[in-house]
């Protein structure tokens, strides 16, 4: 089974599950690709993908497997330079790097 999993999620959340699956089902061979890039399941030969967020307009079938919790954090230097916003909205427009790390 070939699975695509986000790099920002896979090593910390999926890898422990994968290890338990391998222990319980030693005959199951899994190939996991950790990447935050949106993969083409058919063209690239994946059996399934785990994604965090909403499935945009697509012919793919999605199943929710759990909730997603997020946090907004900032260093004291960032708050000193930009202030402490009440919501994440203003932050997303201030610094492109923040979106790359989210």
From TrEMBL:
Molecular functions (GO terms): DNA-binding transcription factor activity; sequence-specific DNA binding
Protein name, entry field: LysR substrate-binding domain-containing protein
Cross-referenced Gene3D superfamilies: 3.40.190.290
InterPro entries, per the entry: LysR-type_TF_proteobact-type, LysR_subst-bd
Single biological process term from Gene Ontology: DNA-templated transcription
Domain LysR substrate-binding: 2-87
One Pfam family, short name: LysR_substrate
Family: Belongs to the LysR transcriptional regulatory family.
């Amino acid at each position: 089974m070939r699975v695509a999993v986000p790099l920002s999620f896979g090593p910390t959340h999926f890898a422990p599950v994968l290890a338990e699956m391998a222990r319980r089902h030693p005959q199951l061979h899994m190939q996991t690709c950790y990447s935050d890039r949106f993969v083409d399941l058919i063209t690239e030969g994946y059996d399934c993908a785990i994604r965090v967020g909403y499935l945009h307009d697509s012919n793919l079938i999605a199943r929710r497997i759990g909730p997603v919790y997020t946090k907004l954090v900032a260093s004291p230097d960032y708050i000193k330079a930009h202030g402490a916003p009440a919501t994440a909205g203003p932050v997303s427009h201030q610094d492109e790097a923040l979106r790359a790390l989210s």
